[in-house]
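Sequence in, structure out. First:
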Amino acid sequence: MNQTSLSHRAYQAVIAIKGLDGALETIAGLILAFAGSQRIYDFLIAITAPEIESHPASHTAHMVRHGAESLLHASHTFIVFYLLAHGMIKLGIAAALLRETVRWVFPVAVAVLGLFVLFMLHRLTHHWSDWLLAFALFDVVTIGLVLNEWRRVSKAGT
Protein backbone atom coordinates (compact mmCIF):
# COMPACT_ATOMS: atom_id res chain seq x y z
CA MET A 1 0.00 0.00 0.00
CA ASN A 2 1.54 3.33 -1.02
CA GLN A 3 1.62 6.55 1.01
CA THR A 4 -1.06 8.26 -1.09
CA SER A 5 -3.46 5.40 -0.61
CA LEU A 6 -2.85 5.35 3.14
CA SER A 7 -3.31 9.11 3.49
CA HIS A 8 -6.43 8.97 1.30
CA ARG A 9 -7.93 6.26 3.51
CA ALA A 10 -7.04 8.24 6.64
CA TYR A 11 -8.70 11.29 5.04
CA GLN A 12 -11.86 9.31 4.27
CA ALA A 13 -12.00 7.88 7.80
CA VAL A 14 -11.49 11.26 9.49
CA ILE A 15 -14.07 12.98 7.29
CA ALA A 16 -16.57 10.16 7.94
CA ILE A 17 -16.00 10.62 11.69
CA LYS A 18 -16.55 14.37 11.27
CA GLY A 19 -19.78 13.69 9.39
CA LEU A 20 -21.01 11.27 12.05
CA ASP A 21 -20.10 13.78 14.76
CA GLY A 22 -21.97 16.49 12.87
CA ALA A 23 -25.04 14.26 12.60
CA LEU A 24 -24.91 13.45 16.33
CA GLU A 25 -24.53 17.14 17.24
CA THR A 26 -27.48 18.03 15.03
CA ILE A 27 -29.63 15.32 16.63
CA ALA A 28 -28.53 16.42 20.13
CA GLY A 29 -29.42 20.02 19.27
CA LEU A 30 -32.87 18.99 18.08
CA ILE A 31 -33.49 16.85 21.17
CA LEU A 32 -32.37 19.69 23.42
CA ALA A 33 -34.50 22.20 21.53
CA PHE A 34 -37.64 20.09 21.90
CA ALA A 35 -37.07 18.47 25.31
CA GLY A 36 -35.45 21.40 27.12
CA SER A 37 -32.47 21.53 29.46
CA GLN A 38 -34.44 20.62 32.58
CA ARG A 39 -35.83 17.39 31.07
CA ILE A 40 -32.38 16.36 29.82
CA TYR A 41 -30.93 17.10 33.27
CA ASP A 42 -33.66 15.11 35.03
CA PHE A 43 -33.19 12.20 32.62
CA LEU A 44 -29.40 12.09 33.09
CA ILE A 45 -29.71 12.31 36.88
CA ALA A 46 -32.26 9.47 36.84
CA ILE A 47 -30.18 7.14 34.66
CA THR A 48 -26.99 7.73 36.68
CA ALA A 49 -28.68 7.28 40.08
CA PRO A 50 -28.36 3.46 40.17
CA GLU A 51 -24.67 3.65 39.24
CA ILE A 52 -23.96 6.30 41.90
CA GLU A 53 -25.85 4.23 44.46
CA SER A 54 -23.94 1.02 43.73
CA HIS A 55 -20.57 2.67 42.91
CA PRO A 56 -20.35 6.08 44.63
CA ALA A 57 -16.89 6.73 43.19
CA SER A 58 -17.95 6.10 39.57
CA HIS A 59 -16.00 8.63 37.54
CA THR A 60 -18.22 8.23 34.47
CA ALA A 61 -21.49 8.76 36.34
CA HIS A 62 -20.12 11.85 38.07
CA MET A 63 -18.82 13.16 34.75
CA VAL A 64 -22.28 12.74 33.17
CA ARG A 65 -23.90 14.49 36.14
CA HIS A 66 -21.39 17.34 35.97
CA GLY A 67 -22.14 17.75 32.25
CA ALA A 68 -25.87 17.70 32.96
CA GLU A 69 -25.46 20.37 35.61
CA SER A 70 -23.39 22.52 33.25
CA LEU A 71 -26.10 22.12 30.62
CA LEU A 72 -28.74 23.24 33.10
CA HIS A 73 -26.86 26.44 33.96
CA ALA A 74 -25.80 27.39 30.44
CA SER A 75 -27.80 29.46 27.98
CA HIS A 76 -30.31 27.06 26.43
CA THR A 77 -30.59 29.15 23.25
CA PHE A 78 -26.80 29.31 22.77
CA ILE A 79 -26.33 25.57 23.27
CA VAL A 80 -29.13 24.67 20.86
CA PHE A 81 -27.86 27.16 18.27
CA TYR A 82 -24.26 25.98 18.68
CA LEU A 83 -25.13 22.28 18.38
CA LEU A 84 -27.40 22.78 15.38
CA ALA A 85 -25.11 25.20 13.51
CA HIS A 86 -21.88 23.34 14.31
CA GLY A 87 -23.45 19.97 13.57
CA MET A 88 -25.06 20.94 10.27
CA ILE A 89 -21.94 22.76 9.06
CA LYS A 90 -19.76 19.72 9.84
CA LEU A 91 -22.26 17.34 8.30
CA GLY A 92 -22.55 19.42 5.12
CA ILE A 93 -18.81 19.87 4.73
CA ALA A 94 -18.13 16.19 5.40
CA ALA A 95 -20.72 15.13 2.81
CA ALA A 96 -19.24 17.48 0.20
CA LEU A 97 -15.67 16.38 0.99
CA LEU A 98 -16.54 12.69 0.72
CA ARG A 99 -18.21 13.24 -2.66
CA GLU A 100 -14.98 14.79 -3.97
CA THR A 101 -16.86 16.43 -6.85
CA VAL A 102 -16.37 20.10 -6.01
CA ARG A 103 -12.93 21.57 -5.42
CA TRP A 104 -14.16 24.74 -3.73
CA VAL A 105 -15.14 22.74 -0.65
CA PHE A 106 -11.50 22.10 0.27
CA PRO A 107 -10.58 25.74 1.10
CA VAL A 108 -13.99 26.24 2.73
CA ALA A 109 -13.43 23.17 4.91
CA VAL A 110 -9.94 24.35 5.90
CA ALA A 111 -11.27 27.80 6.78
CA VAL A 112 -14.21 26.47 8.80
CA LEU A 113 -12.10 23.90 10.64
CA GLY A 114 -9.50 26.60 11.28
CA LEU A 115 -12.19 28.79 12.84
CA PHE A 116 -13.34 25.86 14.98
CA VAL A 117 -9.75 25.34 16.18
CA LEU A 118 -9.36 29.05 16.99
CA PHE A 119 -12.64 29.00 18.91
CA MET A 120 -11.55 25.93 20.89
CA LEU A 121 -8.15 27.48 21.63
CA HIS A 122 -9.90 30.63 22.82
CA ARG A 123 -12.12 28.53 25.11
CA LEU A 124 -9.03 26.70 26.41
CA THR A 125 -7.54 30.01 27.54
CA HIS A 126 -10.61 30.56 29.74
CA HIS A 127 -11.22 27.01 30.94
CA TRP A 128 -8.77 24.15 30.43
CA SER A 129 -10.21 20.87 29.21
CA ASP A 130 -8.23 17.85 28.04
CA TRP A 131 -11.22 16.88 25.90
CA LEU A 132 -11.37 20.26 24.19
CA LEU A 133 -7.63 20.09 23.52
CA ALA A 134 -8.07 16.61 22.02
CA PHE A 135 -10.89 17.86 19.76
CA ALA A 136 -8.77 20.83 18.67
CA LEU A 137 -5.84 18.54 17.86
CA PHE A 138 -8.16 16.21 15.94
CA ASP A 139 -9.32 19.20 13.88
CA VAL A 140 -5.68 20.19 13.23
CA VAL A 141 -4.99 16.66 11.94
CA THR A 142 -8.18 16.88 9.86
CA ILE A 143 -7.00 20.17 8.34
CA GLY A 144 -3.70 18.53 7.41
CA LEU A 145 -5.48 15.62 5.75
CA VAL A 146 -7.87 17.95 3.89
CA LEU A 147 -4.94 20.01 2.60
CA ASN A 148 -3.16 16.85 1.48
CA GLU A 149 -6.29 15.58 -0.27
CA TRP A 150 -6.83 18.97 -1.93
CA ARG A 151 -3.28 18.81 -3.28
CA ARG A 152 -3.84 15.24 -4.51
CA VAL A 153 -7.13 16.11 -6.22
CA SER A 154 -5.59 19.23 -7.79
CA LYS A 155 -2.67 17.19 -9.20
CA ALA A 156 -5.01 14.55 -10.57
CA GLY A 157 -7.17 17.19 -12.23
CA THR A 158 -4.32 18.90 -14.07
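Second:
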Amino acid sequence: MNKQKIAVPTQISGKRSNHFGHCQQFTLVELENNVVRSISFLENPPHPTKGCMQPVALLKANQVDSIIVGGMGANPFKRFSEIGISVFFADHKQFPDVQSVIDSLLAGKLVPMAAQQLCEGSGKCHQHHGKV
Protein backbone atom coordinates (compact mmCIF):
# COMPACT_ATOMS: atom_id res chain seq x y z
CA MET A 1 0.00 0.00 0.00
CA ASN A 2 1.43 3.36 -1.09
CA LYS A 3 0.53 6.26 1.24
CA GLN A 4 1.64 9.87 0.94
CA LYS A 5 0.81 13.14 2.65
CA ILE A 6 1.21 16.19 0.43
CA ALA A 7 1.24 19.81 1.66
CA VAL A 8 0.13 22.68 -0.57
CA PRO A 9 0.61 26.22 0.81
CA THR A 10 -2.74 28.03 0.63
CA GLN A 11 -4.57 31.08 1.89
CA ILE A 12 -7.76 30.84 3.96
CA SER A 13 -9.64 31.70 0.75
CA GLY A 14 -8.46 28.37 -0.68
CA LYS A 15 -6.16 29.94 -3.28
CA ARG A 16 -2.57 28.76 -3.51
CA SER A 17 -0.08 30.94 -1.68
CA ASN A 18 2.78 32.49 -3.64
CA HIS A 19 5.36 31.49 -1.03
CA PHE A 20 5.18 28.64 1.45
CA GLY A 21 6.63 30.53 4.42
CA HIS A 22 3.98 33.26 4.22
CA CYS A 23 0.91 31.12 3.62
CA GLN A 24 -1.97 31.21 6.09
CA GLN A 25 -2.39 27.45 6.05
CA PHE A 26 -1.32 24.24 4.41
CA THR A 27 -3.84 22.10 2.62
CA LEU A 28 -2.85 18.53 3.48
CA VAL A 29 -3.87 15.90 0.95
CA GLU A 30 -3.50 12.28 1.97
CA LEU A 31 -3.10 9.86 -0.92
CA GLU A 32 -3.36 6.10 -0.80
CA ASN A 33 -2.48 4.18 -3.96
CA ASN A 34 -2.74 7.46 -5.91
CA VAL A 35 -6.29 8.12 -4.71
CA VAL A 36 -7.19 11.10 -2.50
CA ARG A 37 -8.29 9.67 0.86
CA SER A 38 -8.58 12.84 2.91
CA ILE A 39 -8.06 16.59 2.86
CA SER A 40 -7.35 18.64 5.97
CA PHE A 41 -5.93 22.03 6.85
CA LEU A 42 -3.00 22.98 9.06
CA GLU A 43 -2.59 26.57 10.22
CA ASN A 44 0.81 28.11 9.51
CA PRO A 45 2.06 30.26 12.42
CA PRO A 46 2.90 33.92 11.67
CA HIS A 47 6.13 34.32 9.71
CA PRO A 48 8.76 36.17 11.78
CA THR A 49 11.95 37.51 10.21
CA LYS A 50 13.99 34.55 8.96
CA GLY A 51 11.14 32.31 10.10
CA CYS A 52 10.92 29.86 7.19
CA MET A 53 12.26 27.04 9.33
CA GLN A 54 9.12 27.03 11.53
CA PRO A 55 6.87 25.69 8.76
CA VAL A 56 9.54 23.11 7.86
CA ALA A 57 9.42 21.74 11.41
CA LEU A 58 5.62 21.96 11.48
CA LEU A 59 5.27 19.87 8.32
CA LYS A 60 7.80 17.30 9.55
CA ALA A 61 5.88 16.99 12.84
CA ASN A 62 2.71 16.33 10.83
CA GLN A 63 4.32 13.50 8.81
CA VAL A 64 4.28 15.33 5.46
CA ASP A 65 6.11 13.48 2.67
CA SER A 66 6.11 16.19 -0.02
CA ILE A 67 5.35 19.86 -0.47
CA ILE A 68 4.32 21.54 -3.72
CA VAL A 69 5.32 25.20 -3.92
CA GLY A 70 5.52 28.16 -6.25
CA GLY A 71 8.36 29.76 -4.29
CA MET A 72 10.94 28.90 -1.64
CA GLY A 73 14.33 30.10 -0.47
CA ALA A 74 17.53 28.07 -0.45
CA ASN A 75 17.69 27.47 3.32
CA PRO A 76 14.26 25.87 3.75
CA PHE A 77 14.77 23.95 0.50
CA LYS A 78 17.97 22.48 1.92
CA ARG A 79 16.31 21.69 5.25
CA PHE A 80 13.36 19.93 3.59
CA SER A 81 15.88 17.76 1.73
CA GLU A 82 17.77 16.98 4.95
CA ILE A 83 14.62 15.79 6.74
CA GLY A 84 13.29 13.76 3.82
CA ILE A 85 10.44 15.95 2.56
CA SER A 86 10.40 16.17 -1.25
CA VAL A 87 9.86 19.62 -2.78
CA PHE A 88 8.02 19.97 -6.08
CA PHE A 89 7.64 23.17 -8.08
CA ALA A 90 4.30 24.11 -9.62
CA ASP A 91 3.99 27.48 -11.33
CA HIS A 92 0.97 29.39 -10.03
CA LYS A 93 -0.15 30.44 -13.52
CA GLN A 94 -0.12 26.89 -14.86
CA PHE A 95 -1.45 25.27 -11.66
CA PRO A 96 -3.71 27.86 -9.95
CA ASP A 97 -5.42 25.68 -7.35
CA VAL A 98 -4.91 22.65 -5.13
CA GLN A 99 -6.91 20.35 -7.41
CA SER A 100 -4.76 21.12 -10.47
CA VAL A 101 -1.58 20.64 -8.42
CA ILE A 102 -2.63 17.23 -7.07
CA ASP A 103 -3.95 16.08 -10.47
CA SER A 104 -0.63 17.05 -12.07
CA LEU A 105 1.39 15.32 -9.35
CA LEU A 106 -0.61 12.10 -9.81
CA ALA A 107 -0.16 12.34 -13.59
CA GLY A 108 3.62 12.63 -13.13
CA LYS A 109 3.69 16.17 -14.58
CA LEU A 110 5.43 17.86 -11.63
CA VAL A 111 9.17 17.69 -11.22
CA PRO A 112 11.35 18.24 -8.17
CA MET A 113 12.21 21.88 -7.56
CA ALA A 114 15.49 22.99 -9.13
CA ALA A 115 18.04 25.48 -7.81
CA GLN A 116 17.19 28.08 -10.48
CA GLN A 117 13.61 28.18 -9.15
CA LEU A 118 14.63 29.18 -5.61
CA CYS A 119 13.89 32.63 -4.20
CA GLU A 120 16.77 34.95 -3.43
CA GLY A 121 15.20 36.17 -0.18
CA SER A 122 13.07 39.21 0.61
CA GLY A 123 10.39 37.90 -1.76
CA LYS A 124 12.63 37.96 -4.85
CA CYS A 125 11.75 34.71 -6.58
CA HIS A 126 13.02 33.94 -10.05
CA GLN A 127 9.63 32.67 -11.18
CA HIS A 128 7.95 35.81 -9.88
CA HIS A 129 10.33 38.03 -11.86
CA GLY A 130 10.46 36.18 -15.16
CA LYS A 131 13.96 34.77 -14.74
CA VAL A 132 13.04 31.11 -15.21
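Remark: The helical segments are 53-61, 74-82, 98-106.
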